[in-house]
Structure formats: structure tokens, C-alpha cells
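Sorry, explain these C-alpha cells?

***
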Amino acid sequence: MNISAAKLDGMIRVGLVGATGYTALEVARILIGHDRAELTAATSRSDDGKPLSEIHPSLAGRCDVSIEPFDAATLKTKCDVVMCCLPHGASAETVRRLVDVGLRVIDFSADFRLSDLATYEKWYDVKHPWPQRVGKTVYGMPEFFADEIATADVVANPGCYPTSAILPLVPLVEADLIETDDIIVDSKSGVSGAGRSPKLGTLYCEVNESIAAYAVGSHRHQPEIVDLVGRIAGRPIEVLFTPHLTPMDRGILSTIYVKPKSATVDQITDCMKARFTKSAFVHVVDHLPATKHVAGTNHVQMTARAAGNRIVLVCVIDNLSKGASGAAIQNMNVMFGLDPTTGLR
């Protein structure tokens, strides 16, 4: 499709569908500081008529958009791109309605990330509302798909855990430096990754002073990691993925255990550096990265260490930024011909 070039002379108008969660709040915060885009509409199934700043008090005095009912035709008059922050299953049908009226969409759900319909329906246990688009929607990781994102009508924003695993693994699988049938991804996430809706497992007294594994062997981000690394690198992989909930607001640290074929840790490091030499956000570092090093930013830090017969990769991101909303803004920038770093830090 043709990019709306006229908008490059003015502000890109952004809509939020499902505006009450943490990812929507993060989008609104970033857009406040974006000099080429502005939030012009926000919808929710409830809270009709309320200012967005009433739902998210941190926006008080900085954002005057009010919640309105979802109507694709109305959003078309107010927006150039819509960010859809709805859950899987509910999102796909909404995205279809937005595309039907000619809007470009960045979808935060998993509905369009995977390349295979059967895999999606198995892991998410729903019939896909728009199966024709499965496998035909660009994955929103500009480090690998910038050209496709630039002209896309729908972009599937990546999952947070997958981002922290796909980025370090792709260069090594591409270069055939590691065994692809024995990859272990051990990830730890802040509580905001569980969303804003109250749940027993994310109450303060449950998570404070504690760390816990969950969804062992059954987390839906496992097939996303397998699918995307295989799709980008052109080689099938097997991954054992285990997520953990940690008592912090935001951030993901993934510790990834791989077996090198014959490569040294220096060769592994050089391979990652070469793959991301032109990336403004992905940094291969000498120190052991921590979530504090990237908190509140769209940046990624990764490193490699030798450990016996394995190489250990450590990758950190902010789950609400590069793992969600920052990635969406980066995708939007690419879609509208802006520098990918515009509005991001």
C-alpha cells in the first residue's frame, strides 16, 4: 500500500484501542515527547467519556484525549495509524475492521505473530477470527523486517519475552555457530508483564520478596521464539523456555544457554556485533547487563560468556518499551518514513 506521504509534512495521528492497560499508558507517555506524532483518539469497552488522564493519573495535565466507544469509521477520521492493545482473539476481528476502513494498524496481541494457523490455534486455544492473515502479516522487529514494515497495513508487534530471545539467537543460528536442537531460554520478567487487571498471582503480597516460575513447558511465547528464529535465520530450532515472575515493576532478563559447534565466545560476540552494527537500539556489551541498564528505554543490551561446554547469552530489555510500546513506536516511525529513533530514548 502507499504510505501516507502527506502526513510526513505534519503530525502522525495515533489512535489507541484498548487504552486502559500499561502498554497503552506507555504509548501515550512516549507520544507526549514525540515531535512528529500525537495521540488523537482512545477507545475502551468501558469508561466512555472519561479523560485518559483519569484512567492513567500520570498523564494529568499532559494528555487531554478522552475515552470513546470503538467505531472504525470514526477512528478513520481522526487517525492515520491505530495501536490495538486488545487481548488475543479479541484483537484480530478489531484489526480487520480497522483495515477495512483503510487504517494502518500495529497490533499488540499474538493474533498475527505466528506463521502457522494450526500452531496459533493449538497454543491459544481459539479459532482465529481472520485466518487469511496468519503467516501474511509482517512481524514488527525492524532489526530484521524494516522494508516490509515500511509498507505494511498491519504490523504484528513482537512479544516481550520473544524479543529478548530472538535478538541474540538469530545471528548465531544464521551463521550456523550453535547447535539448534538444544537451546534453553530462562527468562525473568517484571510484574507489569502480567497486565493491569488485578489477579491473585500478581498482588503485592504474592510477588514481593519472591520469585516464581510459571507456565513451565506451556508458555505461549515458546512457539513464537521457535517460529521467528527459524523464519529469520532459515534454520529450524528447538527451545526449552521457562519464564519467571520477579518482584520488580518492569524489565526482562533472559539467560540463554547454547552449545557452540566450534565457535569461541569471541567469535560468538563478533557475530552478534556484526549483525547489529547498524542498529540504534541493540548493543553487544562487555559487561553483564542488568534490567536497570535499559529501564524506561527502547534499548537492548546483550553479552556472551563461556561456561563449560556451553555459551551463556544474557539479554535485557524493558518489557514495556522494547518489549511492547517502544517497539510499536519504532515500528510506527518506520511505517511513516521517520528515523526509527524519533521520540524514543
